[in-house]
Structures are given as structure tokens and as C-alpha cells.
Amino acid sequence: MNRRRLIHAALGSGFLNALDARRLQAQEQAARAVRGLPSPIIKNISVITTQPANARLVVVKVTTDQDGLYGYGCATFTQRADLVVLAVEKYLKPLLIGRPADRIEDTWQMMYNSSYWRNGPVLNNAMSGVDEALWDIKGRQAGMPVYQLLGGKCREAAAVFVNVGGSDIKEIVDGVRQAMARGYRHVRVRRGDAQEKIRALHNRPVWDPTPNLRHLLEVFEACRKELGFEVELMHDMHERYPPQLALSFVKECERFKLFFLEDPFSPEDLGWFRLLRSQSTTPIAMGELFNSPHDWTPLIPERLIDYIRIHVSQAGGVTPCRKIAILGEFFGVKTAWHGPGDCSPIGHAANLHLDLASYNFGIQEGGIITGVTAEIFRGCPTFKDGYLYASDAPGWGIEVDEKLAAKFPFREAGDGARKGLNGGWGDVRLPDGTVIKQ
Question: Running DSSP on this structure, what letter comes out for residue 317?
């Protein structure tokens, strides 16, 4: 008597039928796992525009043919928001409707190559909106946060830095002290804007590099004297200085043991990084003005920078940025994603999920959402004692109240607002009237 007949005789046919049913169920589950989840199809692409605070936020919503399955992505380029909206609605939407929503890499490559000329900030931000929405969809479909799809957590939370400025040195030092009391261990300091004291040949905003750098050295000196080395200090040079002057300043900062100096040279002056690296060990962060993922090719393998300071939506979304992060890991270069106030909460969430899943994470900017913006974008990352925490909700973990967002449309641009839409960057000049790089 074989084993099956013996069991049949002992337990009866009912028990075996139950076993057969469970076996068939397990086989079906395994078959479904092999086949994968049903592929959602892009049914619609829409754009949510809102301005609950200062920045004009652009968020892309991708809706699929599966009931209730959709995702959000950051496409915020606040200085050219209307152009990004146009790029999404007129070009990407007709290109992508009807395509599988789960083929993220293929879709990114298709968008990237679709206009032949590529790597401009308008199209890259539009692409980011779609790309991040597709990652959100994949997370929602899998029932996992995006960081799980990127390999899972390398850490429980991401350390963030805060900006502190002031009208004088005492105010700056006090501001750093207060930030430390709130749990921050990393503070980016900037000088007060006392430019009205500078004699100029024009009536536009003035920037005089040499006295500004002298003042910053005094700020660092005072912070170290008053606060010691318990706090990590950093500063954004914003590409505003002549390369020779910037090089001299970075060397002067050696004694302050800064966490990093950011953007000492403009993207047009990358050759100076080799000279800087040979003369200073001060850590350098670079890259918020870069558009192309390939801009990093000369900087990372040669270890000319220490922190990748990229604006994720500016580079085209999570898909290219996770590759840049991995490239950095091979050469000991860490991430420090750009997270200013003109980044949407979806963009901040994308930064955080990359932070959690990247072994070579360094530091994160921003991401603390409050007020009506937090009411529109429900489920934003939470801040505690200098760290940002992501929720375990699927996708980015954020739901957008579109009706509330619509109550805060883009404001009409008067004379002052028009300058703001351009960031005011092209309006800042040297005392003699020369436009400075930013």
C-alpha cells in the first residue's frame, strides 16, 4: 500500500481533499508570484499646481486603469512653473498614456530621449513628476514604502541640517545655539544681508565678495569659540565668488573643521575643483545647479567632491538619482540632496526615501512641512531631534488634498513677484554693476 492509500485509509477522503485544496491554493499563489502583479496601464496624467506659501509647487498625478491606483511626483521648478506644466500636458501626457505604469526605467529612457535635445531644467522637472509618480504607484501596488523597493532601510531616519542667519555675529551664534537646543547637530550658517552699506554705482541688489568672505571667517571663528566643535557647521558659497578668491577662502576655513562648504565654484568652472582638492581637505558639496546626471562623471570618480548636492527633480527624478548615489558609494562620495523651500513635499519625501535606502547617505536639507502645506500634503515626513522619519505607508506615504490645493492657486505676478519668479538671481550685481554668477 502506497503512502497516499495508507493516509486515505487512516484519515478518510475528506482530509485528503482539504490537503489537495490547500496544495492547489499554494500552487496558485506561487504561480501568481511568478507571473507578478497585473501591470497597470497609464490612463491619465494631470498636474496639480498650488501656492500655499511662497513657492509655486507643481505636482504630477499619474492615474492608472486599476481602480484607486495612482501616484504623485514632484515637478516643481518654481521659477518656470508654467513651462513645466506645459511640458507635462502637451508633450509627456500624449506620449505616455496607454503605456505600462510599472516599466519605470523604460519610461524614463523614453521621456529622456523623446525630444532629441535633453537635460534642460524644464523637461527634467516634468520627467521627474512622472518618474516619481510611477515609483509611488509601484509602492502602492506592492503595499510598500518606496524605500523598500530601493533595497530597504540602511538607517532608521535621516539627519537634517537647518539654516541660521542674522544681522550680526551675535545673532548668528545665538541662532546656532537655539538650533542645537532643538536637536540639530548640523547647521548651515549665512551672514546677515547688510549690503546697503556698500557704495555702488547702481541701485540694484549688491554683492561684494571680499568683505562678505571676511565676515564669514569671523562668523566661523565666533561659533567655534562660543560653541566648540559640538555642532557641525557648513556654508553655501552659491557659486558667487571669483575662483581664486573662493580657493583662498576654502583654505582659510581648514582650521574650523567644517562639515562642508557648498558650491565654491560655478558649474562653468569645474576645472578649479582639481586645484582645490590638491590644496585643501575641507569637505566640498556641489551640484544643485546641475541638470544632466552626466555632469557628475568627472567629479565623483576623481573624488573632487565629498557630497552630492543634487536637486532630484532637476536631474529627472528618482531613477537617475539612485544611480548617481550608487556611483558615489563606489568612490566614497556621500549624498546631500538639495531640499529648499521651493521643493514640494512630494520632492522632500523622495529625498528622504533615497536617504534611507542609500548606504552612502551624508546629510539632508529641509523636509519639515508645516501649516496649510502640511494640510494639503497629508502624511509628510516627521521631524524629531534633528532627524526626519518616513512613514511605513505605501509609496511616498503622502495623499494630496486636491480640493484644498485648488484654493491656493498661483498668485498673479506683479513687478516684485516677477523678480521673485526669477529668483532674483539675475538682478544681483557687483558694486560696479556687473551681474554675478549664482
Answer: S
Which phi and psi (to 5°) does residue 340 adopt? Answer: -80, 180
- Long-range CB pairs of 290-295 (<8 Å, 24+ gap) are 290/314, 290/315, 291/119, 291/120, 291/121, 291/124, 291/315, 292/118, 292/119, 293/320, 293/321, 293/323, 293/324, 294/119, 295/267
Dist. CA 325–CA 330, nearest whole Å: 9
Nearest to 352 by CA among 315, 397, 307: 397
The mean pLDDT value for 222-238 works out to 96
Pick from 255, 246, 302: nearest CA to 281: 255
Largest CA distance in the chain: 107
| pLDDT one-digit tens code per residue, 28-54 | 544 454 456 689 999 999 999 999 999
**One-letter identity of residue 343:** C
The domains located in the chain, with CATH, are 3-35 (no CATH), 42-146 (3.30.390.10), 148-427 (3.20.20.120)
Choose among 139, 203, 164: nearest CA to 391: 139
8-32 residue pLDDT tens: 554 455 544 554 555 555 445 444 5
d(CA 102, CA 157) in angstroms, rounded, equals 28
Check the CA dihedral 350-353-355-359 and report its sign: negative
Identify the CA nearest to 348 among candidates 85, 120, 130, 74.
Answer: 74
Contact 352, 167 (CB under 8 A): no
Average pLDDT over residues 253-277: 94
This prediction's pTM: 0.89
Grid coordinates standing for 50? 498650488
Predicted confidence (pLDDT) per residue in 365-379, tens digit: 989 999 999 999 999
* Residue-averaged pLDDT of the chain: 89
Q: Could you give the CA distance from residue 304 to residue 73 in angstroms, rounded to a whole number?
A: 31
Q: What is the mean pLDDT of residues 394-405?
A: 98
Please answer whether residues 380 and 347 qualify as being in contact, where contact means their C-beta atoms are separated by less than 8 angstroms.
Answer: no
Q: Return the pLDDT at 33.
A: 47
Where do runs of H (alpha helix) occur along 87-154?
A: 93-96, 104-114, 121-142, 146-149
